[in-house]
Amino acid sequence: MSNKNMFMKSAFVRAPLQNGVGRYVCQLQRVVLKFCKSHGGSRGIRDFIEQDLVDFAKQNPSVVVYLKPRRHRGPVLVAEYLNGDRVWMSVHNKTHSEITKWMEVLRTQQGDVAGARLRKYQYTDYPSVQGPWTPFTFKDPELNVATLPDPKFGANNRLSVSATEKLRLMFEKQAISEKDVKTGE
Predict the structure, then answer these.
(1) How many Å apart are CA 141 and CA 144, to the nearest integer?
(2) Mind listing the pLDDT tens digit for each residue in 32-80?
(3) C-alpha 45, offset from chain centre
(4) Nearest to 156 by CA among 165, 147, 144
(5) Dihedral sign, Cα of residue 94, residue 111, residue 107, residue 75
(6) Is the Cα torsion angle 172, 178, 181, 185 positive or negative in sign?
(7) How far apart are CA 162 and CA 91, in angstroms?
(8) What pLDDT is attached to residue 142?
(9) Hey, is 158 helix, strand or coil?
(10) Do the beta carbons of residue 19 and residue 25 sit within 8 Å?
(11) pLDDT one-digit tens code per residue, 146-158
(12) What residues have CB less than 8 Å from 76, skipping those under 6 apart?
């Protein structure tokens, strides 16, 4: 068993500032595209810059895009979010379409979501005064004093009777009535 999660920051599942309740605010603040002008590993990011970067910038006016050419270095995407998180991603030898997909992932997420250990899998701003729901929340209190097994409480009355079950019951009633007729003669 690994202890690597001990060194991760802990957080709750949350939507930043109820994002999407009123209007949606893109959480991505800026993207820095670092690449080499001549290295072969940067070919995909150079193709993205030539073909799709202007469209990306027009579609996302709230995102600031920086280009940082560097000599003999691997290509990198650095995304900075409104909550202060920075996501650094190496895109060495990635294709143009892969970089387009990763840019969309970075644009739609709310920060470094993979770098946080979840304390709980659910979170609410208004916790219940009555406590959390359990399978026994709306059960009949008569069940508390009953001696089990009890056919009254063990019956599955939530499902409707199937056609096969109806035929079986009709056959049993018919067999009982025929038996009564024979014994009654």
Answers:
(1) 6
(2) 999 999 999 999 999 999 999 999 999 999 999 999 999 999 999 999 9
(3) 29
(4) 165
(5) negative
(6) negative
(7) 57
(8) 84
(9) coil
(10) yes
(11) 888 888 777 777 7
(12) 32, 33, 34, 35, 88, 89, 90, 91
Long-range contacts made by residues 97-105, C-beta under 8 angstroms, separation at least 24?
Answer: 98/44, 99/44, 99/45, 99/47, 99/48, 100/48, 100/52, 102/77, 103/31, 103/48, 103/56, 103/77
Three-state DSSP class for 118?
Answer: strand
Q: How far apart are CA 128 and CA 35, in angstroms?
A: 51
Write down the pLDDT at residue 26: 87
98: its two tokens = 């892969």
Pairing of strands 76-81, 28-35: antiparallel
Residue 117 confidence (pLDDT) above 90: no
Residues 11, 116 contacting (CB under 8 angstroms): yes
Do residues 10 and 119 touch, judged by C-beta distance below 8 A? yes
